[in-house]
Amino acid sequence: MIMAFGGASIDGSAYRDVTHWAQHAPGWLDTAVTVWSAYGLALFAVLMALAWWRARHQGAAQALTALAVPLVALLAYGVDLVLKSAVQEDRPCRTLRVTTLEACPAHGDWSFPSNHAVIAVAAAVALLFVSRRLGALACGAAVAMAVSRVWIGVHYPHDVLAGVLVGILVALPAMLVVRRWSPALARRATATAPLRTLLSAAS
Fold first, then answer.
1. CB distance 124 to 83 below 8 Å
2. N or C: fewer beta carbons within 10 Å in the chain?
3. Which residues of 90-113 are buried (b: 16+ CB within 10 A; e: fewer)?
4. How far apart are the C-alpha atoms of 5 and 88, rounded to whole Å?
5. For residue 100, what is the DSSP state?
6. How far is CA 161 from the centre of its chain?
7. pLDDT digits (tens, 9 = 90+) for 118-171
């Protein structure tokens, strides 16, 4: 097991700058960022559901691809948990003396990489395989989520950058596999009534 490394030596000064800006930003902006950081992942769930609903009208293979999106996000989250347990980096708000918008997570709630960034980016990349429009919206939201985690003070910049990278590296190959096999899997799945309902719109 790898022990916690000193994250502050990587980009602690950049983290201090961001948290300083947050303390001097307008109250409405800090409130908006804090709310988004806490609840913004719900938007990705909505986009996943919308992508699936629309994909049902585009064929069973596309609907099956849409159903894979939350599974890929869950897979990315699992990879993130493994990395967190291996690296065990303390939160910057515990290592550095700074004032943050959000209470610092307890010791043992590790910082590297950011699970919010991992989930958001994995979902965004996966959604691009279903709908470019929804995927583009999700990509913008994922960037906003990653930035928000540093703004409220719970992650170093390198934590969210690593989260972005993990999300891409998990979602991209996974969705390429899904796209390749979805036609064959859809043909088998539509042979049963319950799955046929999930994969096709009512006529």
1. no
2. C
3. bbbbebbebebbbebeeeeebbbb
4. 8
5. -
6. 12
7. 999 999 999 999 999 999 999 999 999 999 999 999 999 999 999 999 999 999
Q: What percent of the chain has pLDDT over 70?
A: 87
What's the distance, CA 19 to chain centroid? 22
Show the DSSP H helices in the chain as ranges: 8-23, 27-39, 41-55, 60-87, 92-95, 115-128, 132-151, 157-189, 193-199
Q: What is the pLDDT of residues 79-116, one digit of tens each?
A: 999 999 999 898 998 888 888 888 888 888 899 999 99
Pair 165, 116: CB distance under 8 Å: no
Q: Cβ of 9: how many Cβ atoms within 10 Å?
A: 9
Tokens linked to 15: 């983290």
